[in-house]
Design a protein that fits this description.
Mean pLDDT: 89
Keywords: Cell outer membrane, Ion transport, Iron, Iron transport, Membrane, Receptor, Signal, TonB box, Transmembrane, Transmembrane beta strand, Transport
Structural class: mainly beta
Family: Belongs to the TonB-dependent receptor family.
Subcellular location: Cell outer membrane
Protein name: TonB-dependent siderophore receptor
Distance between the termini: 58 Å
Strand content: over 45%
InterPro entries: Beta-barrel_TonB, Beta-barrel_TonB_sf, Plug_dom, Plug_dom_sf, TonB-dep_rcpt-like, TonB_box_CS, TonB_sidphr_rcpt
Shape: globular
Number of helices: 3
């Protein structure tokens, strides 16, 4: 079968065969946010102090301080989410080092992005420590209002997480019930006719406080930067925690979301003569035009997603702790689009994941061990039906092609975190077994069947030394393995992607300040990675070998004088090592050498303006290639985006307004819109967006 994509959008979509520094002398005393914490706030799923994360389970599945975790970790905390109010995962990650967003311009259908030059859209997004099961055209969408935080672990994590990329994972941490009563409602309005209502309520459900609840939701009616695309959404996320005693905790997490956007975000591309970099014939028309190829009369992409899961933890004694996480999720897509004819894709995706582990804390002489042993199982099953052309605009074409796949992964893992004086050694191993069955064919005909059985051993090891003054240099090495759903250009089932990375880094928590610095150099080798290439004007999935190396530095702080900041710089050289003869050694398209960002936020602490907060940021994206062939005519120019925020707590005007906050957020304030080309097809950046909100907490 020849895979065709008429929509030419994000990496997930492209698999659709037819759809084809501040002053301050004291350490800041902000409220420490602890999600399912235990005790002092140094333990739990996640804890943070303003912009600065202090502890979390995402990196090791154990309660380990981030300074003592010898790997690169960035965190988007609840404070950052509230101040910047991102509308999707890409906006939430916009100031994270190494994360390249906007590779497909403005496209609200999928959160397509890379980390360290590696596409992580399908195989690196986790939810509460479990991989989000997804199919080629069926990816769970994110509602940031339902998140407590985002933890970005850079570098291979397959040793404990199994199927995940060599660039790392992005762990989305859901809002959980709180012991203290919490109530919030909010209304929003802004660009493109946006109207939205949010609510978030939580607290004890019984007098004893052994049962806690939380209910988070929103309703939105909006358009987008592309007039033919909607941005409508209904979202509700219930959560319940039962804690009968200090040793046992059970949390149930659910979600239902019904969202509608546009079926295509593609613009008409014009192709001229191809020349090498020494040629004199250059086409001035090559690339995107302002002609939108879709049609709002047949352009609804409706997605209904449901997930339900639980987290169980039981502490037997001071040595042994049992944990189990499980989730079932279901996703239904109905995607209408126009690309020189009507197209329709319907896909149903379902899957579950279960991760069971036992932790043991033991001491041998002067050495402390935190041992972790576990087993996890995940299963994906999807059915896809597609049709294209042959009917008048507005009518559904016949669904003439179908694909179906079942992908089951089982893994066992073992990890030991060793502590001896200032030394920290972390080592983990894992083995995965994967069974895949893929069917494809014309509707009503006997399908062609392909099967794969794969297995892979992965591991990681890291060594660091934690000094008394907050400095922790480290070195790490890890390998990765991930099975890929769908097929590649020749019609065969995609091969698993493998990778390895070496990293050298340093972490520094500034003594006396709520501030930290992180820096790392890395080198990644990835085999059979999935990328997308425009062939005969259509975007198709191919697999290649890739080498990515670079350097990253990040600083975050929340200081006592009201100033918070996040600053980062990353250098990334991503090159193709094997795919076709004409691309070997070329830089990977849309991956710039240089990216940098800075976000500053200041809250007035006293005086008449107390409660006024002003934030602003700049995101710089360096120049990059527009396709993997290196044709200079569609190179991407360097650009910078300016974002801003202003808020005011109205209770400073009157005590009767206690709990009310007015806030305005803007992205791309200067309306910087340029062409962005990836894998030979070109798109446009999203223009200026302004959102105003009025929030009431009690």
């Amino acid at each position: 079968m020849t895979i065709r994509s008429a929509l030419l959008g994000s990496s997930a979509l492209l698999l659709t065969p037819i759809a084809a520094l501040a002053q301050g002398t004291e350490r800041i005393q902000l409220d420490t946010i602890v999600v399912e914490g235990q005790g002092s706030g140094e333990k739990g799923v996640f804890s943070a102090n303003g912009y600065v994360a202090t502890s979390g389970r995402s990196a090791s599945k154990t309660d380990t301080p981030l300074l003592e975790t010898p790997m690169s970790i960035s965190t988007v905390t609840q404070t950052q989410l509230e101040q910047r109010k991102p509308q999707n995962l890409l906006e939430a990650l916009a100031y994270t080092p190494g994360a390249r967003i906007g590779t497909y311009g403005f496209d609200p259908r999928y959160d397509a992005f890379t980390i360290r030059g590696i596409d992580v859209t399908q195989n690196a997004v986790f939810r509460d420590g479990l991989r989000q099961i997804g199919s080629p055209n069926g990816l769970m969408r994110l509602e940031p209002y339902g998140l407590e935080a985002i933890s970005v672990l850079r570098g291979p994590a397959s040793a404990i997480y199994g199927a995940s990329t060599s660039a790392g994972i992005v762990d989305l941490i859901s809002k959980r019930p709180t012991e203290t009563p919490f109530r919030e409602i909010e209304i929003q309005g802004g660009s493109f006719g946006r109207k939205q209502f949010n609510f978030d309520i939580s607290g004890p459900a019984n007098p004893e406080g052994t049962l806690l609840y939380r209910l988070t939701g929103l309703v939105r009616d909006a358009k987008t930067d592309i007039g033919a695309m909607k941005d409508d959404r209904v979202f509700i996320a219930p959560a319940l925690t039962w804690k009968p005693n200090e040793a046992t905790k059970l949390t149930v997490l659910g979600e239902y979301m019904d969202s509608t956007t546009g079926g295509t975000a593609a613009y008409l591309n014009l192709y001229g003569p191809y020349v090498d970099r020494q040629g004199n014939v250059l086409s001035k028309t090559l690339g995107a035009t302002k002609v939108y190829v879709g049609d709002k009369r047949y352009n609804d992409f409706r997605q209904q997603q449901t997930r339900i899961g639980y987290e169980l933890e039981h502490k037997f004694d001071e040595v042994f702790t049992f944990r189990q996480r499980a989730r079932y999720q279901q996703l239904g897509n109905n995607q209408q689009y126009v690309y020189f004819g009507s197209g329709l894709t319907r896909e149903n995706t379902a899957g579950f994941s279960v991760d069971t582990s036992l932790e043991a804390k033991v001491r041998t002489g002067a050495v402390d061990h935190t041992l972790l042993a576990g087993i996890d199982v995940s299963r994906l099953h999807y059915k896809n039906k597609e049709g294209f052309g042959g009917v008048p605009l507005g009518y559904n074409p016949a669904l003439l092609w179908r694909t179906e796949q079942t992908l089951t992964t089982t893994g066992v893992y073992l990890q030991d975190q060793i502590k001896w004086g200032g030394w920290r050694l972390s080592a983990g191993v894992r083995n995965d077994w994967v069974d895949s069955k893929f069917e494809a064919g014309a509707a009503g005909a006997v399908p062609t069947e392909s099967k794969r059985n794969d297995g892979k051993f992965t591991g990681r090891a890291a060594l660091s030394y934690v000094t008394d003054f907050g400095l922790a240099p480290y070195v790490s090495y890890g390998t990765s393995f991930v099975p890929n759903p769908g097929t590649v250009l020749n019609g065969g089932v995609a091969q698993p992607t493998t990778g390895k990375q070496a990293e050298l880094g340093v972490k520094y928590d500034l003594p006396g300040y709520n501030a930290s610095l992180r820096a790392a150099v890395f080198n990644i080798r990835q085999d059979n990675g999935v990328v997308y290439e425009v062939v005969d004007g259509l975007n198709r999935q191919v697999q290649l070998d890739l080498r990515s190396s670079g350097f990253e530095i990040e600083g975050v702080a929340s200081l006592a004088n009201g100033l918070s900041l996040q600053a980062s710089y990353s250098y990334n050289d991503a090159r193709i090592k094997k795919v076709t003869e004409e691309t070997v050694g070329n830089r990977l398209s849309s991956i710039p050498y240089h990216m940098a960002s800075l976000w500053l936020d200041y809250t007035v602490q006293a005086g008449p303006a107390r409660g006024l907060g002003i934030g602003g940021g700049v995101r710089y994206v360096g120049s990059s290639l527009g396709d993997n062939l290196g044709r200079p005519v569609i190179d991407n120019k360097a650009r910078a985006f300016l974002d801003g925020s202003i808020r005011y707590d109205l209770e400073n005007l009157s005590p009767q307004l206690k709990g009310m906050r007015f806030q305005v957020n803007a992205t791309n304030l200067l309306n910087e819109v340029q062409q962005t080309c990836t894998a030979g097809y070109c798109y446009f950046d999203e223009g200026r967006k302004v959102i105003a909100s009025l929030r009431y907490r009690w």
